[in-house]
Structures are given as structure tokens and as C-alpha cells.
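User: Sequence for RNA polymerase sigma factor SigZ below. C-alpha cells please.
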Amino acid sequence: MNADIGEVWNDMNDRLTNFVIGKVNDSELTKDIVQDVFLKVFSKNDTLKQKDKLISWIYQITRNEIINHFRNVDFYNPSIVIEEEEFNENKLTSELAECVRPVINSLPQKYKEALILSDIENIPQKEIAERLNISYSGLKSRVQRGRAMLKSTCEQCCDISTDVYGDILDYNPKKIYEK
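Assistant: C-alpha cells for RNA polymerase sigma factor SigZ:
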């Protein structure tokens, strides 16, 4: 498990640093908080019950460390609010969506349009069907086929971990070795 944490930490260090600096606006303090997060993650990794929730767990520890910092310095700024939603899996889904936008754009027009409206712009499918002047079931088919095409293409270049609901837990580019 420690090797997994080391790999995840290397992958996440920059993301956590950027997140923390956005909240505390102090580069030295950011380094301290990120280091404290790493120490807690490494020392308490055996307490994690669901190993597939490692990234969410790290984000939770990061949020708690930021809150603890502000508690310890007797400083309260109501404009600094750390929402639970900032760390949920939808953030990874949105992040990955931006990475795969060129892949989406390479899909046939009818699938591309259905996916962008449904999955990126989050427009209800009934509304999209009306806009495109097609049946609701026809739109659902387009979205499902577009997702299947997109998934197939993405699986060729990335390892994507999802939960039982299909929400993205983590993704990593596949390593391609040249001969």
C-alpha cells in the first residue's frame, strides 16, 4: 500500500499544492500544509477502509489541514469556505472532460453534439431532444453510442478508475514504451 500512496502522492502533489495556495494565498504556508497532509496520509494509510477512495481521502485530509490551520491561528475569514463539492468525484470527471475534448470533437457530429450538450453542458436530455428535433429515445441512443465511442478511444490511452455509478475516481495516462 505504501508504494501505491507514493505513486498517488507524486501524481497529486501539484494539484494539492495549487488547491491549498488558492485557499491560503501563502506559498510557505502551502508547503507546510501539503507536507502535513503527506505525513498524515503516509502514517494513517492503514486506517483507510476503502482503498479505491484513496484520492478522495487525501482531499479530505487536505481540507481538514487547511481548516485546522485557520483554527490554530485564531483567524476566521468567512470568505474562505471549503466546500465538500470541491473534492468530489465530479471534479475529476470535469477535469478529464477537458482533457478528452479533442477526442469528443473527433466523433461524428451527431454524437459529438449529443455528448457535449448532455455530459459537459449538463442540459437535460429531454430538452436536448426538443432542441435537436429528435425523439427522446433517439437522443438517449445517441448519447449512449457517443459515450461508448469515447470510452473506447479513451481506454486506448488512459487507465480510468470509476466507482459503481460510473463517476471517475482517478485517471492516468498509459505508459507507451517505444522499442
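The CA atoms of residues 74 and 90 lie 33 Å apart.
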